[in-house]
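Render Shikimate dehydrogenase (NADP(+)) in 3D.
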Amino acid sequence: MNSNPQKYGVFGDPIHHSLSPAMHKAAFSNLGLSAVYDAFLVKPEDLEKSILKAKDDGFCGLNLTIPHKESVLKFDFISPDPFSKMVGAANTLRFSSNGIEAFNTDAMGALLALESENFHTDGKNILIIGAGGASRSISFLFGLRKNPVKIVNRTAEKAEKLAVEIQEKTGNLNVSGGGFSNLLPDIARADIIIQTTELGMGKYENVSVFDQLESDLKNENLRVAELKKYLTPESVVFDIVYNPAETKFLREAKAAGAQTMNGTMMLVYQGALAFEIWTGKKPDISVMKNAVLKALDSRK
């Protein structure tokens, strides 16, 4: 082994849950690359000095997770690529002779995850639930790809504001925003439904988006029967949460007859894209996926 392995890591707060070290270490090992990858707890107020210290310490690259993806672009020493600049968020940094470059691989990770399951997106009607950080990058990507996009959020104004921003920056006028009041008709019109909120994970593990509705779906006993009126066997329901592997939202959608997928492959593909940005090499997707699944299994 090289006595001076290349250094990589992920900054976040919290960070103990991160699966990135297991995933990237497996990818580096599989390609015989001498590298280390560690998780670092970095508070928001320490982000700037931590990035500069990583640069001084000879790091080659970093991933950024909550809550740093948007704030990192405020620093004038960061050079964002066109997409991360448009979105206003980055999850990958590359240190090089060109300085510190920023990239966003989250959205393309979501797209590649869908395509890996043969869920093709060209021309499809996309419904995105949530208007937070994860929603932004995914919504912008589908806006750029000229898909019809509807963004819905519990606070309608936030979704509407995001939709207008995407229209202005992408020229796609078929992007709209709204609240949950018309969620069922929105679901019926959508080909692909992407759930981007934290509902279904952590302290919200037993909560579904449908619990938020003031409608017939409020009654869990009637919920699946009611959902069958709006979801079809062709409907694709994608929850970007990967732990648990099946959220309450996905269980309900599956019971109503829809095709479902969780966020595991989005995690893998965004990581693979970051890996390629850093190294110029394509990692083995199956190796990264197996490392993620093994790490998840060890936490049960």
